[in-house]
Amino acid sequence: MDTEILARVQFAFTVSFHYIYPPLSIGLGLIMVIMEGLYLKTGDKIYETMARFWTRIFALTFGIGVATGIVMEFEFGTNWATYSRYVGDVFGSALAAEGIFAFALESGFLGVLLFGWNRVKPPVHFIATLGVWLGSMFSAVWIVVANSWQQTPAGYHIVGTGTNARAEITDFWAMVFNPSSVDRLLHVWVGAILAGAFLVLSVHGYYLLKGRYIEISQKAFKIALVVATIFSCSQLLTGHESANGVSKNQPAKLAAFEGHYDSLAKADMYLLGWVNQEKKEVYGPKIPGGLSFLLHYDFKTPVTGLNHYADNDRPKAVNAIFQFYHIMITLGMMMIGLTLLASWLWWRGKLFNYRWLLKLFVFAVFMPQIANQAGWFAAEMGRQPWVVYGLLRTSDAFSKSVGAQQILFSLIMFTLIYVLLFALFIYLLDRKIKHGPYDDSDIESRPLQHEISEVVENR
Amino acid sequence: METFLGIDYPTLWFLVVGALFSGYAILDGFDLGAGAWHLFFRKEESRRIALNAIGPVWDGNEVWLVIGGGALFAGFPILYAAMFSAMYIPFMLFLAFLIFRAVSIEFRSKEPMPWWRMLWDICYCISSAMLGFLLGVVLGNILQGIAIGPDFEYKGSWLQFINPYAVMVGLTTLSLFMVHGAIYLAMKTEGRLFIKITLLLKRAILFFVVVFVITTILTLLFIPHLSDHLLSNPLLLVIPLLAFLSIANIPRLVSKQKYRYAFFFSALTMSLLLILVAVELYPVLLLSTINPAYSITVHNSASSVKSLKIMLLFVLIGAPMVGIYTLFVYRTFRGKVKLDETSY
């Protein structure tokens, strides 16, 4: 295999694995802030127990998130040297802002969040939790800004020509508020919060099914359900805004989302389907003119299609992009349906009466995760063949001095490490869930704890 | 060229990056060093105390690497691209050890079985040591220069990063981290573990002095261009002099049991050695061994003045904030380690 493909596979693999964790940190962070806030407000110990339990799971996701995140930063330099030279002046400032303003806040307060329960007063601890959560939210701001700049470059000019060409920043705020960054940031934030909320729903739903920790689980389930309902419905709006933005800024990507080739025709919207890339046709149930209606509020308005672009200026893997996009949409709709149904049952006072509903929620944890991944795959594959839209091709962006065998070596290394990491993550998550929210219920998991504390105290 | 306080912007950013990496070396240096000692402690209780001494802060320390890397990327993209792609293998190994280390810290306390804890103890100790060593190897290659072509692309082979000089710089870095880490542990522990650490610390200082002397001699003999700046401007000789005094001060303070001051001086030693590296290299960042004219310098690899100005503003706003919460965290966890149910 050639260097470009290997470098792309490696980046896609490492970034998708990484992206399992930061959304969980953002989503769980919000829920922990709510739980601790309720504890401060009501003084009810049950909320503190809840917050402490989720802190332990948060620690697990955060640790893996940091370790796999540094990989991404380094890979820009190791695998994408030409890209780094090209975008460093613009992209770099967003990355530096992320480090200084967001990541430092997050990691700084993390120590207090995890280990400070017995050392600081509850309000101070609450501030630490808030700091960690805000840090993770700001982190998303700068990373999405940097990525959005690659989708819709703004506030820059090009200096140099040929291999020496590079983008230089001319207007910082135009770069930050480039045409797609606000829409995409909201969409990413909401997707992340859903990932956290559905994990809480899943775990407490499991306890309720098993008849364990009933009181605490009912309370926690309701907190997460409020969050999940509000945000899965609002995702409809941010998603719509994003699609509108894509239609203006990256019409080729939007055309690929729906497999739309003919620029003179109205654009259909498919519920699901299969794109025949040779015949340039899509098979599947559709709403004729549906996409035209969503964009222009008229079923007949023509929409720019893929045929409008030269073959090497438009994405190739149209069917894959189509599928990822539709997976995301379908899962989004299912999350709205599920949370609205549960909220309605709650209103009728029957939320915990149906075992099938709780079972659905136990497995629903995969929905936001898959939707987040599918959404990013659609967004990043739909932007091809460009790494910086309209400016730098992916095929020109990788490191010329790194051989295919070196990338293969690191790809195999990362695959082995990440498979191991994922297995351990699942194993430990399972242990923590089975252990439950109460520390004292299972002293066996930490046999020496009390003895050791005493030994140390008595010194 | 536009200047601020009489210093041009690329040079200012060079100072910022230098300060960030110096901060990283001081902060992550002690927790990597502490990790490298891990297997020297035999008892489960000792290992837990040693691990929890760095428990609440190691993650915050690693942030400095993320910020330092980001600052290098943003300020000197050409250097970032050349250096990272040239030293592909050491950086990939660095990442692998970084992941293993983070995972070991997180996972070891999650199961009580002795084999489980032993496994993560070994993993934690080796990865901590290797991270210090690999940082030194990269530094060694920067000091020697690498095969950079006219287009700022690396032209050498992928195995050239491993050479005797780079290995010696790697060992020097590791030994200095181990001194630094042992002093930190001495501040955070008490009883028999404390006594054990003080014994190990004395050996560590000896180890450091030996490798440091060898590396210095190698530098003077085989990389003469590094002493050019010092010889042409004797005033600069005050930096190595201060570094030697600072090093000599460490065993003196250790024997007086003044560990806080000793920690300060091991931190100072790191800063002074890095300043020495900066003075010897500047304005070159990465010397080309093919032709000195191809070298990557502060000026030919820097981002635009506009971009550097924006980022300097970030640093002016951000640095005090980072300082405040770093101080808050260290204050919260000051004093000797106490284990409780939230500990690792």
What number of domains of chain B?
1
Residues in helices of chain A, as a percent range: over 70%
Question: What's the SSE pattern of chain B?
Answer: EEHHHHHHHHHHHEEH
Q: How many strand segments of chain B?
A: 4
Number of helices of chain B: 12
Mean pLDDT of chain A: 86
Work out the radius of gyration of chain A. 24 Å
Write the layout of secondary structure elements.
The complex is a heterodimer of chains A (459) and B (344).
Chain A: H1 3-18, H2 21-42, H3 45-79, H4 81-115, H5 122-151, E1 156-159, E2 166-169, H6 172-176, H7 181-210, H8 214-249, H9 251-257, E3 269-270, E4 274-276, E5 281-283, E6 286-287, H10 290-296, H11 318-347, H12 355-363, H13 366-382, E7 386-388, E8 392-393, H14 394-397, H15 404-435, H16 449-458
Antiparallel strand pairs in A: 1-2, 3-6, 4-5, 7-8
Helix pairs in contact in A: 1-3, 1-15, 2-3, 2-5, 2-7, 3-4, 3-15, 4-5, 5-7, 7-8, 7-12, 7-13, 8-9, 8-11, 9-13, 11-13
Chain B: E1 3-4, E2 7-8, H1 9-36, H2 44-54, H3 58-75, H4 77-86, H5 88-108, H6 114-144, H7 164-188, H8 191-222, H9 228-232, H10 238-255, H11 259-281, E3 284-286, E4 296-297, H12 305-332
Antiparallel strand pairs in B: 1-2, 3-4
Helix pairs in contact in B: 1-3, 1-6, 1-7, 1-11, 1-12, 3-4, 3-12, 5-6, 6-7, 7-8, 7-11, 10-11
